[in-house]
Amino acid sequence: MVVPFDYIRYICDYNQIKMKKITEEELMSIRQLNQSVVDLKNSIADYEIKKHYAMQQIMHRAAELNKLNEEIESKYGSININLETGEYDNQEDISGS
Fold first, then answer.
1. Exposed (0-12), middle (13-18) or buried (19+): which is 78, by Cβ within 10 Å?
2. What is the pLDDT of residues 14-45, one digit of tens each?
3. Cβ neighbours of residue 94 under 8 Å, at least 6 residues apart?
């Protein structure tokens, strides 16, 4: 393969160009701020994962509660339960009063 002379000259000229730089302080500030943004994004992602897990647990527990309510209703009928004492009243007695 033959490389054109102009291309070789371009590569040589490019290698001789001195790259411009920002100051070390500026670079350090940019790096620190960038890392802070990355850390905050990671924190949000962690919270979103925890939120998703908690929502799944709520859905699971709500399904269990509905199933238990159906079992209790089939055994006792439609009732109101005092969650502190376990005592219950028939809903018909309350609405008929």
1. exposed
2. 666 667 889 999 999 999 999 999 999 999 99
3. 80
Copy the structure tokens of residue 87: 């005592």
77: left (phi over 0), alpha (psi -120 to 50) or beta: left
Q: What is the pLDDT of residues 50-71, one digit of tens each?
A: 999 999 999 999 999 999 999 9
Cβ atoms within 10 Å, residue 8 = 10
Rounded to an integer, what distance in angstroms lies between the CA atom of residue 50 and that of residue 34? 25
Residue 94, both tokens: 């309350």
Pairing of strands 88-90, 79-81: antiparallel
Q: Does this model's pTM top 0.70?
A: no
